[in-house]
Amino acid sequence: MNSIDTAKSLCDTECNPIVDLSHLTWTINNKLPNIGGSYIKASENKDDKLYYYKMSRYMPYHGIIGHESINEIICMNIANSLGLSCARYEIIDAYINIKNKHTLLVRCPDFKPCNTSKISLENYYEICKLNNETTFEFMKRMGYEDFCYRLFIFDYLIFNRDRHGANIEFIYENGKYTLAPLFDNGLSFMCSCITPEEFKAYDKLKTGPVNNYIGSRDTLENLKLVPKSIIDVLDKPDNIFQGLEPYFHYMPQEFWDNIQEMFDRRWELVKSL
Which of 81, 123, 124, 207 could form a disulfide with 237 if both were Cys (CB 3.0 to 4.6 A apart)? Predict the structure, then answer.
């Protein structure tokens, strides 16, 4: 039992209702060279709302082999506990029109209000930065210092690999820029692992290199920039798996145990600073 699909096949009697999403057209997005495979995404307008869908890691010859969709829910729970706004992800077991499979995926509504536009941090920075100003200095000047500190904590706790300049966005409305909710947190925790043996062997305190746009390419180095006064008032989340209980059988027990251990150990390090 080393993937969502194989775990699911052993638990047919326990499966949640399966949603028919075979009408969606899926597109392959960015290649994932460090772990192999691609993300596949789709969108649709439903009941006058725009929804985005994202599957876990996909490989043409093996199908869906990753668990990034589950990671999105775990990360959303942690982000909310840290006071960070996060896209409202919902996990779904769905039929898809790729190899006639059903698999876990996540859906979230478009967080951009009507009659507004959005811009990536990368583009916002390039337009508005001062000479020789780093991205961290830019964010502090724009009034987002506290956000950066909480983001550094969050990305260390989940070991996010992919906080590049387009994975932070701003919403533009009436001449003002405001931060959009966080999104695309699936490349986190042990996202490169598939087998129980890989989950057990993974370095739970690994810190880099990562694709950070703010600060350094090491999550621990960014964490060290956070004032102790912010860390001291943090409360540990009671349940990082909130909302995933009906889906525990989709992954081996080693997955859940080692995710929890990784989070616990990283939380202890954060609080020890």
Answer: 81
